[in-house]
Write a structure and sequence with these properties.
The complex is a heterodimer of chains A (177) and B (503). In chain A, 75% of the residues lie in helices and 0% in strands. Chain A is mostly helical and 177 residues long. Chain B has one domain. A two-stranded antiparallel sheet of chain B has the order 1-2. In chain B, a hairpin with a 6-residue loop joins β1 and β2. In chain B, α8 packs across α9. At the A-B interface, α1, α2, α4, α5 and α6 of A face α9, β2, α10, α19 and α20 of B.
């Protein structure tokens, strides 16, 4: 897909989302006790904002459509400029990106099950692995050190209420906080 | 006013506060020196740490970190040609060539000296400008506050991004996020989708952490994978071990006096403009100095004037950016937008009333801009080599630390929903970056949203119609100024392009 096409798609998506959001504001329920004459409802301000977003995204769409004429050649030229090596690096980089995102999402889920300490240790191991750290000392030493620092600073000193996990993991977390 | 200023310095120089300023400055220095981390990320990461602090300590800590981070960016810019923070981007142009010529010590010295000068200049302007502006703002009613918020949004859109329309969309999205939850006036639930977690609105900390800190990890994951480059140091390892900072001589200071004064004024003024920060200040300060010089072709080849211009203006913008924050409650930059969030989390409402009701605290945060400059002067002179060694930490280790700190910050709201929000906003930030949409306006929108909405609605109740609101004299002036700030950069840019093509 050419750059212009990608931008056009994203601008159309923003326009459609703004429109959907605008329509959704009509479902807001006004509390029956509210009867202040001469003032606007709570839906008016979001409606103004969404209308603004819709109009601005339409301007972007129009701009993209006007720029589209010479665009296909731009896209082809750009693809030809990219070497095979660069494309391979880009693929690997995006693979890493998806792995990183998956690690973060897994962390959000696991934090409630394993508790903060274990999950945080594991996510750091995962981050280091995704970013190509392969030395055992780095992969396990750094997370251990950082988790200990966070434990002392935020749990011991600042008494921050962090997830403890469930079942055996809850018992493990209770050993520390 | 002088009494307040002295009181502010007295509070700032109290041992506990001084210790926290130095700590904040040191943290900022390290964050600023690491590529990919800057003052905004730092403020986002460290807001949760400030929970346990008193409001004054929290504010002086964050101000110290802001100053330290803006300065810290120049160290890798000079030694590795990688600006540690965006604010140091112009310093790279002359700093790295100077280091290659064997003048790394002089380049670091000039950068340090003029950073301190810029910071103190901006801090002094803040001490005298903010109270005057706040006194004026005390006369403002709801319509003027709405117009001020609008000015903040348009100034950021006009000057802060490549496409004003995309910046405006981001800003409107930020304002929209601020409407999530229960409407303060009517009790109407908006965009909660039946979720209890959203009834009180979208948490500021998870959003900031997601948009700036976690998103940076995602960005760097892709960027480092694609470029795969390792920074090449301008000096050898042996020289690096012996490296010292050589401050400029009196003769040099005299020869740069007009450049430093001019760029300090430019930096402060740009900092004062709502929504525009130190990076723009550095770019404008540098380009104006080059344009006005007799030999502009020397800039970019290792000319010390480039470092003086860039570092003076970006550091002067620190104090400048805090003028609208403290006087009007309108952030002057992305970092001050995050700091505004920190004020609110500590139960404070920046603006003219803060200057009256909590004068000591307001003046202490102003004085801390100046004190932090002296703190990073001392820290840099004593600890430059350990700081440079820290720069050798591999990015994966830094990323692991950022993720862990982000998690604590996102979970600090007390439930896992904050973590989901932070990850969601990190992905959104990554996608927005790819689409050319800046993320700073979202934060600006989030902090200005409640002020703008309530002011707009109260103004409507008073005036009975929109026309009555926008024709109030000060409101009309501010709205015209907003339109000028939105369209002037585009029109001026087009004018310059036409002029250049004719030539």
């Amino acid at each position: 897909m050419t750059i212009v096409n990608q931008e056009l798609v994203q601008d159309v998506i923003i326009a459609l989302l703004s429109l959907a959001g605008f329509a959704y504001t009509f479902t807001f329920k006004r509390p029956s006790a509210y009867r202040l004459e001469g003032s606007v409802t709570g839906a008016a301000w979001p409606q103004v904002l969404l209308a603004g977003m819709f109009i601005l995204s339409l301007i972007l769409v129009a701009g993209q459509l006007l720029a589209r004429r010479g665009a296909p050649t731009r896209g082809v030229a750009r693809r030809e400029e990219e070497s095979a090596e660069f494309r391979a690096r880009k693929r690997t980089a995006y693979k890493r990106f998806y792995l990183m995102l998956a690690a973060l999402m897994a962390y959000a889920v696991l934090a409630s099950v394993l508790g903060f300490l274990l999950a945080t240790f594991l996510v750091q191991v995962a981050v280091l692995w995704v970013l190509s750290a392969r030395s055992g000392r780095v992969m396990f030493g750094v997370p251990l050190l950082l988790t200990t620092v966070i434990y002392i600073l935020f749990i011991r000193l600042l008494n921050m209420p962090l997830p403890r996990g469930v079942g055996p993991f809850l018992a493990f977390s209770r050993l520390f906080y | 006013m002088l009494t307040h200023i002295f009181q502010g310095f007295a509070v700032t120089l109290a041992p506990v506060n001084l210790l926290w300023i130095v700590a904040g400055t040191a943290v900022g220095l390290i964050l600023g020196a690491f590529p990919g981390l800057d003052s905004t990320v730092g403020a986002a990461l460290f807001i949760p740490v400030t929970y346990a602090m008193s409001p004054t300590v929290a504010l002086v800590f964050l101000v110290g970190m802001y100053g330290g981070a803006v300065y810290g960016g120049q160290i890798p810019a000079i030694l590795f040609r990688i600006p540690g923070a965006p604010e140091a981007v112009m310093t790279t142009l002359d700093g790295y060539p100077m280091a290659q010529k064997g003048q790394a010590d002089r380049a670091l010295g000039l950068g340090l000296f003029y950073s301190v000068f810029g910071n103190i200049f901006g801090g002094l302007c803040l001490l005298f400008l903010a109270p005057a502006l706040a006194a004026m703002a005390l006369q403002f009613g709801p319509s003027e506050y709405f117009a001020l918020g609008f000015l903040g949004m348009t100034a950021m859109a006009g000057l802060g991004g490549k496409s004003p329309i995309k910046s405006l969309i981001s800003g409107l999205f930020g304002l929209l996020i601020a409407t999530v939850g229960m409407d303060q006036i009517t009790g109407m639930e908006r965009f909660t989708f039946g979720r209890l977690e959203l009834a009180n609105g979208v948490g500021f900390i998870p959003v900031v952490i997601g948009l700036f800190a976690l998103a940076e990890v995602l960005n760097q994951t892709v960027k480092q994978g694609i470029t795969g480059t390792v920074a090449e140091a301008a000096v050898s390892k042996e020289e690096m071990k012996r490296l010292r900072i050589r401050l400029p001589s009196w003769a040099e200071v005299k020869s740069f006096k007009w450049i430093s004064l001019g760029t300090a004024l430019i930096g402060t003024w740009i900092g004062v403009l709502p929504g525009v920060g130190a990076t723009t200040a550095a770019i404008v300060g540098y380009s104006q100095t080059a344009r006005l010089s007799k030999d502009p072709e020397k800039f970019g080849t290792g000319d010390p004037r480039g470092i003086v211009a860039s570092e003076t203006s970006n550091n002067a913008a620190v104090g400048g950016a805090m003028v609208p924050l403290l006087a009007l409650g309108i952030p002057g930059s992305a970092t001050t937008a995050v700091m505004l969030g920190a004020f609110m989390l500590h139960g404070l409402k920046p603006g003219p009333l803060l200057m009256v009701e909590q004068a000591q605290m307001a003046y202490a945060s102003m004085a801390s801009v100046i004190v932090s400059a002296l703190a990073f002067l001392g820290l840099a002179l004593i600890m430059v080599r350990p700081f440079i060694r820290l720069l050798g930490l591999p990015y994966p280790v830094v990323a692991a630390g950022i993720v862990a700190f982000c998690a604590v910050g996102a979970l600090s709201m007390g439930d896992l929903f904050g973590l989901y929000l932070a990850i969601g906003f990190a992905l959104l930030s990554f996608l927005m970056d790819k689409g050319g949409f800046p993320t700073s306006p979202i934060i600006l929108g989030m902090v200005l949203g409640p002020i703008m909405e309530s002011s707009f609605r109260r103004a409507l109740i008073i005036s009975d119609n929109v026309w009555g609101v926008i024709t109030e004299p000060i409101t009309a002036f501010l709205l015209i100024l907003s339109l000028v700030s939105l369209f002037a950069p585009t029109l001026l840019g087009k004018g310059r392009k036409n002029h250049a093509s004719q030539e």
